[in-house]
């Protein structure tokens, strides 16, 4: 850890970089380097959405990079799986052995090999470029990367055609902002800056969230609904918009499909009915509808928190109908933003080279069900038993649902596991080979964003530490050992980065060469993407009623689907496990990343369970006491915090702690299940019943 003063001096160099983390903000970074050491990471003051400010986590990025526990050499397992006992080996020995093992398995059936990766870095180069080429050429099982956002994506796609929305920079001009299923101060801090400006300009801010999170504390109103009931709330809002004729009839007739059918469905949802389902006062729903129908421009910042339940996609679908009804899309500062991903045109085919499959169609496994899938025997239906897993950019032992099954799967002695990592995570403890990967300061990358509209460049600031290598280089070396000779396996990171930005009008004329120098470049395109319609749906309109959904045998209108596990929808289960648990992110962690950075872990303290005082009293639990949270799938041991910031009947367990840094070697995912969302095959982390008892 560099301890020199981090005041910039004349001999320092300043490197333009980008935050790699799975967060909507994708900040522009300025890294100060002195004598080959990165001494500070700051937010670029000139980048509009970063505006010189970083979150607590990434402002400590040097602490993470130079952490004494960084993996700096390849390691081979010497103890039992899970024991975390390793001995150093050379790169040659590790790569030769891994290639031999993969060849041997592939000779039987390459689908027995599974890549497992997600959001450790969102860079195009270090995520699915060389890695995807490698697994495509191998013919390995494909991975459906569903663990975060695919339900919401499916919901948005059905109604507005894709992950597009209003420009985050416009929110300061909104007069009403609904922060729906998002704890902005924790997970979308730079949006919050715009929301605060709007507030100072007289806008009303409303947070729609089951618990009074830090963001709700600072909004004018908080609609504290039960998890998984958002579609009912949205339909009641429509009911009121229709009943009071707060509608933009001109926008509806020109740019939407299916209003008559939607109207009929919405009229089944008077506020009293939704109030019953959502557990909020009918009067509050009426007021929210009045605000939404009369304050212009009205903007919705919807985020992924509301789609981690059975009806997640349909909840997003229902909410996505609202802006068209009131014509909010006409305004630069109106409409909705969930993700800006599809404003960008990335050249996925060039990066990932699916053509290397050469006509083969390997099975696809869903990353949410890794627990079950690792424990499944081979069968005609499933295909071969999984014999090898290569994990990179992910920590499934901590983040995947039904963690006890995930652990049992990775503990299989007949499973060959390779983990590419910065640290010895919970997953790394189960590796046969643990390979040291570079961090964002040590490698090159190019990023799009899902919360703003800038392409971002990441220039390497320092040389790789120890023997660490970029993911790309590790897969390049493995490809060579497998005998893959296609020229794409010899491409440098620089050559890969240059292909990421597709030559597409959506990207304007942005090129990699320019981007590297400038650090960031904004997409062209109007602030209000749908002011004149032009939705990327089959009809070109906002589809309240979806022919595509009808053709797939599903409800052509958005549906209200209650959770798999809730008192109302699973009364039998609720007699044993009456408390609904949600587990959104802790502010100072990024999923399971940063949990091992001491200064940040100290800010979070220890794994906590927020419990309403009524529920605590009923169970004889005092504030600060250790409690056991349990259901049929598992149990955790955490400290209880009595708080009226949650509802009676609902607990909040902020995540995602490393198991091995928790009191009992378990984390919140010991309790979650592997069932999937209505559309998009996503996880249902916030659709989970439990019971709590004093430990
Ligand atoms: N500090 C920090 N920032 C992060 C992350 C992190 O771990 N830490 N993670 C990053 C990642 S990968 C993602 S996907 C995003 C996640 O950030 P968001 O997309 O904002 O999603 P969550 O944080 O999961 O949940 C946001 C809020 O939704 C609420 N919520 C839960 N269930 C429901 C529901 O049924 N209805 C409604 N209306 N609200 C509900 C939760 O209580 C929470 O306050 O943030 C990114 N940013
Ligand atoms: N209960 C519960 N579970 C959840 C969630 C929740 O809200 N509640 N949130 C879910 C969500 S939204 C998400 S997105 C997932 C996130 O799940 P993951 O994508 O697995 O995210 P992380 O836990 O941050 O783990 C990423 C790992 O990648 C490593 N890494 C980072 N950069 C690199 C690199 O360049 N190379 C290599 N080889 N490794 C690297 C990091 O060290 C880290 O250990 O978790 C999900 N799980
Ligand atoms: Mo996520």
TrEMBL record:
Entry-linked InterPro entries: Asp_de-COase-like_dom_sf, MoPterin_dinucl-bd_dom, Mopterin_OxRdtase, Mopterin_OxRdtase_4Fe-4S_dom, Mopterin_OxRdtase_prok_CS, Prok_Mopterin_Oxidored, YoaE_C
Transmembrane domains' residue ranges: none
Cofactor(s) of this protein: Mo-bis(molybdopterin guanine dinucleotide)
Protein's UniProt keywords contain Metal-binding: yes
Listed EC numbers: 1.7.99.4, 1.-.-.-
Gene Ontology MF annotations: iron-sulfur cluster binding; metal ion binding; molybdopterin cofactor binding; oxidoreductase activity
Domain of life from the UniProt record: Bacteria
Keyword terms, alphabetized: Iron, Iron-sulfur, Metal-binding, Molybdenum, Oxidoreductase
This protein's name: Anaerobic dehydrogenase
Designated gene of the protein: yoaE
